[in-house]
Specification:
Blueprint: E1 19-22, H1 30-35, E2 41-50, E3 55-58, E4 65-72, E5 74-79, E6 82-87, E7 90-94, E8 100-104, E9 110-118, H2 122-128, E10 137-138, H3 143-158, H4 163-180, H5 197-206, H6 213-219, H7 224-235, H8 239-257, H9 262-268, H10 274-285, H11 289-298
Antiparallel strand pairs: 1-2, 2-9, 3-8, 4-7, 4-9, 5-6, 5-8, 7-10
Helix pairs in contact: 3-4, 6-7, 8-11
Length: 299
């Protein structure tokens, strides 16, 4: 592997310098991989600041997974001998048995995070995250991923009895954060990854009182009809059914853990009409609140 790197900061006290951390000092991971049956094992990781002409060429096929996350500049990268330009805010993962090479493009300085990793659950995790072999994805600049990488570096410095647990957790956080921020060809976050954080948090904090759909839609700066459509795609339920399910789940807990009357429970979870509460409960659970409580007492 050939490359040239400049270790100087790129501006300001907070500028990152090139750095690298390794699981084994000799860079050989075969024994470590055989001994570890963990879901994720981070083999090495780091941050590169490259301000002058460079080229990287891995002549042999790698045995582990390799993630490269560009945060500044752009590079030429070759995938199956096809030259592609990878830009800041893009990420690519090379799966095992791949060769790769990349180089400076148009003399533009670059900065990127990198990590080599393995583990017996990686294939499933990457599949769930919709991260595929040698596919370049746009994710933008994600501050939380920067912090996870820095925390990962710190764990390699600490390297105590919790090292493998902590590095596994940080690596999983990096992969899931990247997946949640995939950007489609139109420059918007994929519908599968849209999160109504404001309105969903509001629902969970206020589901026992009346909440209008217009109120929720305004929190996401959407029309009511658009909000309903996207909410259903995210949760699989309409806003009304989602709130009803939260209320009924709370009612089930109260029926199980307290001796409150059904009328009292109905009021607590947001239903002033006990008969209406019972109808909703039957629709969601399949039996009446009183029958549900009797079944619990028999167990």
């Amino acid at each position: 592997m050939d490359f040239f790197m400049d270790n100087s900061p790129t501006g300001g006290e907070a500028a990152m310098k090139s750095q690298a951390y390794y699981l084994t000092i000799d860079g050989k991971y075969g024994v470590a991989q055989k001994q570890l049956s963990k879901g994720i094992i981070v083999l090495c990781t780091g941050f590169n600041v490259l301000n002058q002409t460079f080229k990287t060429h891995n002549h042999t096929r790698i045995e582990e997974y390799y993630l490269l996350y560009m945060v500044k500049g752009e590079m030429k990268i070759w995938i199956d001998n096809e030259e592609i330009i990878i830009l800041a805010g893009q990420v690519v993962v090379f799966f095992p048995n791949n060769k790769y090479r990349y180089a400076m493009h148009n003399g533009i300085a670059v900065q990127y995070y990198w990590v080599h990793f393995s583990g017996n659950q990686i294939a499933d995790i990457l599949s769930d995250c919709r991260i595929y072999n040698c596919v370049i994805n746009s994710v933008g600049i994600i501050e939380s991923v920067f912090q996870d990488f820095k925390a990962l570096f710190q764990e390699f410095a600490i390297r105590d009895h919790l090292f493998y647990y902590q590095t596994e957790a940080k690596m999983l956080s990096i992969l899931t954060s990247i997946s949640r921020n995939f950007i489609d060809f139109h420059g918007t976050v994929s519908k599968a990854n849209i999160r109504f954080i404001e309105s969903l948090t509001y629902i969970h904090q206020n589901f026992t009182r009346e909440i209008s759909i217009a109120e929720l839609a305004s929190k996401e700066y959407l029309s009511v009809s658009r909000y309903r459509t996207i909410f259903k795609k995210i949760t699989g339920h309409s806003p009304k059914d989602y709130i009803s399910n939260l209320r009924i789940n709370q009612a089930k807990r109260l029926l199980h853990q307290t001796n409150l009357s059904i009328c009292e429970i109905a009021g607590i979870v947001g239903y002033q009409d006990q008969l209406y509460f019972s109808r909703v409960f039957v629709k969601c659970v399949g039996c009446s609140p009183s029958s549900f409580r009797k079944i619990l007492y028999k167990k």
